[in-house]
Each structure stands twice: as structure tokens, then as C-alpha cells.
Amino acid sequence: MTILVTGATGNVGRQVVEHLVKRGADVRALVRDPSKAEFPAGVSVVQGDFLDVDSLRNAMSGVSTLFLLNAVVPDEFTQALIALNVARSAGIERIVYLSVIHADVYVNVPHFAGKFGVERMIEQMDFKATILRPAYFIQNDLTVKDVITGYGAYPMPIGPKGLAMIDVRDIAEIAALELLRREQAAEPLALERINLVGPETLTGTDIAAIWSDVLARPIHYGGDNTEGFEQNLKQFMPAWMAYDMRLMGERFLTDGMLPEAGDVERLTALLGRPLRPYRAFASETVASA
Q: What are phi and psi of 167, to 5 degrees?
């Protein structure tokens, strides 16, 4: 009984592997370059790529449960569909897929629409899966730490509706727990969707206020300008991705990322502890600077 973790060298995937190993699971990690992979002892590392079908067939041979995580790339949808088809051919029924909250609402945002298409395939092909739908990753804000501390402004286009931001560490632990629940079940469990949210829903002004408290000086919110947000992103990412992120930011402003009733309580019970708040992340970030 082997769990295959894709995206294993990324921030979420690496932590999923670590949680699974701590809990005694037989883990196989799919990586592009095994020479750069650093995992706990006992993890089986296999080289592969989502667009290399033969490598996927090899990686999925003998696997009982799959963690599917696709990077935001131009062909993300194609990569996910290939992986699911190969998984089906390999006899893998038990899957945990990392999607995104409101994938069915942010229909004009490319990487949201792609993930919703993958969700539909999982459902239509009758995979026994947990579809995890995380809200905004708290750790995304590490990319703007220097702007916050150096210019006194929080630049992310969060807006007035609010986002139920979640810590990446909580995402990874929940994913590992769901993988183990499905792996250890006597029979494949029915499809389920779980919103992954943080303990509070924060607006752009709320987040600026948290940083003001943590840094003990005024931090202003200035993130509603999505055009400027796109131009800034183009300095360090491809233009298509910067535009994708701008479209996402525009939906933040109009729709927000809001939890459903009972989401926080469900996740708290699953983890057996409170979810990590944004303030804890901000305090840790400042302390480690």
C-alpha cells in the first residue's frame, strides 16, 4: 500500500511527505530531478513529469492512493487530465486533489477554471476522492514582506469582501490526514469536497492593521489597484501568469473568498487543534527577519 505524492518538492507537497512519513506511511515522491530531492529516510523517490506518460506509468505502478498537486503553468489542465487517466489505467481509485476554493465561481480566472475542470473529471470518472479547496495561502504574503516593511504598505489586492486565508502548514497536514484516511479505509470512500480556510476572514484593511500592530508602526492598505498589481508581478513572473493573478485579484475585490458555515469547526476537529491565524504568521515573519 503506497501513497504517491506529486508536487513533492514544493512547499505543500514536501510537507505532505513529511507528515505521512511521521505517521508511518509508505511514501513515494514524484520529482523531476531526483538529485535535488531531499526527503526523510524511507521515502521512495521516482523521476517523472506530468507530460512524460511513460514516467507517470512507472511512478504509479503499485500505488494505492494518489496526492495530485499541479503547479500553475500554461498547461496545468492538460497535465492533471493526463495524470488522472494514467492513474485510472493503473487501478488507482483513492485520490486527494488540491484544487482551490470557489473554483466554480471564479470562472474567468484561468487556473481556477482549470482546477474546476479537473474536479469535474474526477467526479464524472467516479474516482473516490477528496477534493481539497484551499483559500488564499497565507505564505503568499512572504513575496511582499519587503514592500510591507520597507514602504509601509500592504499591496495585495484583498479588498473589502475578505479572504479566509489559510496557513500552508495546515493545508499540508489536512492533506496528509485525508490521504491516510482514504488509504486506510477498508473500501474506497465516496467523493468529498472540503473547503480549506483559516480561522478568520480578513479584508485588506484588516491585514494592514495586523502588520501595523506587529511592526509597531503604521502600515497602509493600498492593494485595490489590480492594474498596478499586474505590472508589478510582470517584473518577476511571465506576463500570462501576472494577468492570471490580476484576474484573481479582481475576483477577490468583487467576491472575496468566504468560508461556508461549519468549515472552520470541521477543520479544527480534523486537526485536533486551532487553525493558525494570520497574526501568528506575521509575528513569525518579523521575528525571523
A: -75, 135
